[in-house]
Write a structure and sequence with these properties.
Layout: H1 9-13, H2 15-23, H3 29-33, E1 39-41, E2 57-71, E3 78-85, E4 90-97, H4 100-109, E5 115-125, E6 128-132, E7 135-138, H5 146-154, E8 157-159, H6 168-179, H7 193-199, H8 204-212, H9 217-247, H10 264-271, H11 278-291, E9 298-303, H12 309-322, E10 326-330, H13 334-348, E11 365-369, H14 375-387, E12 390-395, E13 409-415, H15 422-429, E14 437-442, H16 448-454, E15 459-463, E16 473-479, H17 483-498, E17 502-506, H18 526-533, H19 547-554, E18 565-568, H20 574-586, E19 591-594, E20 607-612, H21 620-627, E21 637-643, H22 650-660, H23 664-675, H24 701-717, H25 725-734, H26 737-743
Parallel strand pairs: 4-6, 9-14, 9-15, 10-12, 10-13, 11-12, 13-14, 16-21, 17-19, 17-20, 18-19, 20-21
Antiparallel strand pairs: 1-8, 2-3, 2-5, 3-4, 5-6, 5-7
Bound molecules: adenosine-5'-diphosphate and magnesium ion.
Residues 274, 276-277, 280, 303, 305-311, 443, 467, 601, 603, 605, 632 line the site of adenosine-5'-diphosphate (ADP).
Length: 746
Amino acid sequence: MTDRLTEPLSAVLGARSAAPLAKMGIETVSDLLGHYPRRYGDPGRVSDLAALAIGEHVTVMARVARATVRQMRSRGGAMLQAVVTDGTHNLSLTFFAKRAGVLRHHEDRLRPGRMGLFTGVVGDYRGERQLTHPDYLIVGVDADDEESALVEATRPIPIYPASASAPSWRIQRAVRTVLDPLTEDDVPDPVPQGVRHGHGWGSRLEALRDVHEPYDERQWRRGRDRLRHEEAFVLQAALAQRRAATAAEEATSRPPRGGEAPGLLAAFDAALPFVLTAGQQEVGAQIAEDLARHRPMQRLLQGEVGSGKTVVALRAMLQVVDAGGQAALLAPTEVLAAQHARTLRGLLGPLAEAGMLGGAESSTRVALLTGSLGAAARKEALLDAASGAAGIVVGTHALLGDQVRFADLGLVIVDEQHRFGVEQRDALRAKARTTPHLLVMTATPIPRTVAMTVFGDLETSILSEVPAGRSPVTTVVVPAANETWTARMWGRIREEVEAGRRAYVVCARIDPDESADVTAEPEGDVDLVDLLEAGDPGASAAPLRAVVEVAAELEHVPALAGVGVGMLHGRMSPAEKDRAMADFASGAVPVLVSTTVVEVGVDVPAATVMVVFDADRFGLSQLHQLRGRVGRGSDPGLCLLVSTARPGTPAAVRVETMAETTDGFRLASVDLELRSEGDVLGAAQSGRGSSLKLLRVVKDAPVIEQARRDASAVVEEDPTLARHPGLAAAIAQQLDPQREEFLDRA
Ligand code: ADP
Ligand code: MG
């Protein structure tokens, strides 16, 4: 096998052609072959020129209407002006040159009646849309002879994610140059022959030819389908390998205590002030069984917001403590870690007061370890963890630090964490004698196939039921600029506060001076940043409302006169944050203006209203999380989504969907669908590199399920993939760091 695929493009195409591709991250033959067309132009059909927006980089298919060269008296030099049309609307093309002769070449190719692809940035000249010095390709003209010209003229035209310096057809030519000389031997196939034959698929090379050089639609569809299956297959094989590797590891069995010597779990259950929901019992039994095994539990617990995951987690921790081990609970922020420690201590009561006056006879301790602890508190927490005095250690990523030691770490619980990857897992594993059991909890409902893709190495449990007695949350979309609505909104908050309840006011950023760059905030709004970067269609471009600004405004809102308004955001010190949360929880300061730090897990049952500013700029899953902060007690909740979205845009659809349903799974699906849209001609055509190129995790459910079955069978039979070098190589190549991170979002 030669190594043609890894050859640098500069060696194959020459430095000049390779340079613009390199800027798009396409450096090798393999990169280029993996740069699939985003769609195909039909040579018989023109683009809708009326849909072009000024300032966009576009590629359009149109027919030449006329082209004329003339001298420019005023400026000197010559100008070629051409008009192309879709039959109804026109677009001008303008070229300038010192001498008219230079332009004759264009005039000759841009003959009226010819079809072509034109690319450039849409400009505005006296109210007309135009492309200046566009790059273009005349259909059928760039072939060697008439016959092939005819064939060429009817073939689908691959349209690639392109850039100004590497327009689509340059990429097409480059692809041909590298693809044509390749043979089957040059292109190893990650999909084993058995699987291929089973589905009647051709080779990988064939599939590449199908997508890059199709003769008709059927052909590129076939190729795309084959490559999409391959993508799913390689991903699932990687996950199957990871599952197999973990299954081979040894864990310490932590079975539940028997009846004759009841432990903490039994004492806790006996004192529980409520009855566990059926779901909590079922999932609890599953986890209890997992913990008793000699191989590590690897479980993902998805729980609808407010479904009571904390109690499930605590019961698992107590089982491990009863069996002589320790449990670590990892939270994404200091606010949440501190809250968890408080909640757990509250739930445990005297059971968590080991060594203290009034502590129960058989009891343990809950240690809190965060980055901002004072030296003394830190030393004590470290000591409790290392000695085993603390059966439960709660913390942020500080728990992963080198100085943190455990006496016998048996269980790791990761709460609401979006970046807990293999490395973190390894760091914690290194602190234990055997691989600790792992429970990942998330309140973001994950559609089944997404769970299979992103969390494919974990087994999944679902808590869908919320405890009885909860009141539903009503959601209303509030138009941002409407004063009547705004006044009513603050009036409602006053009423709630007077009735002894609390209100959150959520803003996307901290203060109005910072740019829209929300990454400045440690707690990070991944969703929001994504949407802004993607130029979310329909979302307003108005500056985002900010915590500091809104909090100051509320001081002067007549309806809120005399009502305490607090702030919570990532630039406050941990002590300030604790203070703000405590004042809010107690009701001393009943209105809290906050960033999305309150998104996850914050539990203040008396909070009944939430206002979200710029709701149209948030992702649905994030709004769902935010909304989950209200309606946690017996009083009905109200969520007011302040939106600037224009009606009918995806952004407007998002907030309206929020108002229509509280079903987290539905919201998560809609969210994903809305996000993968936007494949409109004229939309930014530079390829935003996603590690999954063709696979759509929601739409392609059958493909993913199929791939999972195929891949599991292959890996089961050949766990090291020694007999499947093509697959092993594909896994290694595809699991680049970015991909790993994607996979490890747990
Ligand atoms: P989440 O799944 O969103 O993390 P929590 O674990 O924070 O939910 O639980 C939300 C609230 O419901 C807490 O106040 C908790 O004490 C309470 N709770 C949990 N389980 C039950 C139950 N079975 N019956 C009544 N209340 C419960
Ligand atoms: Mg929680």
